[in-house]
Write a structure and sequence with these properties.
The chain has 7 helices and 6 strands. By secondary structure, it is an alpha/beta fold. Helix 1 packs across helix 6. The longest helix is centred in the last third of the chain and has 20 residues.
């Protein structure tokens, strides 16, 4: 990688990390149409996805065993819910999926929760950095619309979501695989015609 691209990617990664804790900035951009312009989901579906995530997180929080023993990351895209994270038992892993299946408007749940204890704070921080780097490399990739891919990282595993064409998915996977720290890339895409 040349120095200019490295500098750009580093700056983007840093700014993405800083903005990660600023939902008002992101929501404000979405409300103004900034983040929705290239999204293939209708605006109503984007709002549904936000509502699904809020309701699903609340439901997990209402189950003391899930809330105390598991770390469950919930991401909804086009009414498809990705469950990532860690639970110590298969019973809890299945219970998490059952709880999310009951959320209205959820079309399908992809359960990628691993049978492990919850990740450490250090691992969570590293995962946030990996997500920032993957997003930054996607932004820096010429001719690639990074706004169409959602990136979630858990324990070094990168999950990619979005409504994409086959070529877009292949490029996104290739970009993520070449980021240092990524242990595995799991595509959770839905495909559209190009």
């Amino acid at each position: 990688m040349n120095f200019t691209r490295f500098t750009l990617v580093s700056a983007l990664a840093a700014s993405t990390t800083l903005l990660a804790g600023c939902p008002a900035v992101i929501v404000g951009g979405a409300a103004a149409g900034g983040l929705t312009a290239h999204d293939r989901r209708p605006y109503e579906v984007q709002l549904d996805d936000e509502n699904i995530e809020q309701k699903a997180n609340a439901r997990i929080g209402n189950h003391p065993s899930l809330d105390a023993e598991c770390h469950v990351s919930i991401t909804s895209y086009n009414h498809l819910v990705l469950l990532a994270g860690q639970c110590p038992t298969e019973v809890l892993r299945k219970q998490a999926q059952q709880v999310i299946n009951e959320v209205p408007t959820v079309r399908r749940v992809q359960n990628e929760i691993r049978l492990l204890g919850p990740r450490s704070t250090l691992t969570a921080s590293a995962d946030g950095w990996i997500t920032s780097k993957v997003k930054s490399f996607m932004v820096a990739e010429k001719g690639f619309d990074s706004t169409r891919v959602k990136v979630v990282t858990e324990n070094g595993e990168v999950f990619l979501m979005g409504l994409v064409t086959k070529p877009e998915s292949q490029r996104a996977i290739a970009i993520a695989r070449n980021v240092s720290g990524v242990q595995r890339v799991v595509p959770v895409f839905e495909y559209v015609e190009g």
